[in-house]
Specification:
Elements lengths: L16 H23 L3 H13 L4
Length: about 60
């Protein structure tokens, strides 16, 4: 199954802040490197990675 979105901010909107901090952040820290390694060259993913890099001053 291809990812359809990269959800980056739901804190306090759909879930409690503690759930985001204690469950989702650790999951993302663990899963994101493998996701980027596997999908990072796909045009849509690359576009978002580049946008984030630009936003944080890394590009």
């Amino acid at each position: 199954m291809q990812p359809r979105v990269i959800l980056t901010d739901i804190e306090g909107t759909t879930s409690s802040i503690s759930f985001v901090k204690n469950v989702l952040f650790p999951y993302a820290r663990k899963a994101l490197p493998a996701f980027v390694a596997e999908h990072g060259q796909q045009p849509e993913v690359r576009r978002w990675l580049d946008a984030v890099a630009t936003e944080i001053g890394g590009a």
